[in-house]
Amino acid sequence: MDILTTKPCNVCHLRPRGTGSLCAECMDLFVADFPKTAPKARWSLLPWAGLAKVVDVLTVSGSKYSDDYWRTVPTAEHLDKALRHIAGHMRGETRDHETKLPALAHATARLLMILALDSAATPEVDDD
Questions:
Q1: Which range has the worst mean pLDDT, 18-22, 58-62, 72-76, 122-126?
Q2: CA-to-CA distance for 86 and 28, rounded, in angstroms?
Q3: What angle, rounded to 10 degrees, do the helices at 103-121 and 75-90 form?
Q4: Alpha helix (H) ranges present in 10-74?
Q5: What is the pLDDT of residue 53?
Q6: Do 75 and 125 belong together in one domain?
Q7: How many Cβ atoms are within 10 Å of 97's Cβ, its own excluded?
Q8: Residue 115 shares a structural domain with residue 91
Q9: Per-residue pLDDT tens for 65-84?
Q10: Which of 12, 68, 79, 112 is least surrounded by Cβ atoms within 10 Å, i.e. has the fewest?
Q11: What is the C-alpha separation between 54 and 38, in angstroms, rounded?
């Protein structure tokens, strides 16, 4: 058995990896959601271990509130909370006091929420 297939998937952490860093099921999910420019995009450059921490934050918040609660929060509030987590990290508070997850994972989750809200409000322009 190839050594790559013995390591867990970088997304779900449940199934063994395929030929890359994801299992076949997770890869199918990502491929289905790829934009038309995906062949140009280098998704393999994403730091999956860091993103897994962001998913942990989203999982905790989804169970505390609702999965889409963040869509009702104003962008300015997301930014304030992200900056508070970043400032805390810079002061040495590397973990959120409530969840014990990395402060930067919380900040990244908030910044991704802003990106999603901004993307929904502003359609992308095709540069091709």
A1: 122-126
A2: 34
A3: 160
A4: 24-33, 48-64
A5: 96
A6: yes
A7: 8
A8: yes
A9: 988 899 999 999 999 999 99
A10: 68
A11: 22
Report field, pTM of the whole predicted structure over 0.90: no
Longest CA–CA separation in the chain, Å = 50
DSSP string for residues in 64-128: HS-TTGGGGS-HHHHHHHHHHHHHHHHTT--B-TTT-SBHHHHHHHHHHHHHHHHHHHSPPPP--
Instruction: Count the Cβ atoms, other than its own, within 10 Å of residue 110.
Output: 25
Tell whether 40 and 54 lie within a shared domain. Answer: no
Does 27 share its domain with 60? no
Which of 77, 80, 75 is closest to 122 using CA atoms? 75
CA 13 to chain centre: 15
Whether 35 and 65 share a structural domain: no
Predicted confidence (pLDDT) per residue in 33-69, tens digit: 655 545 667 778 889 999 999 999 999 999 899 888 9
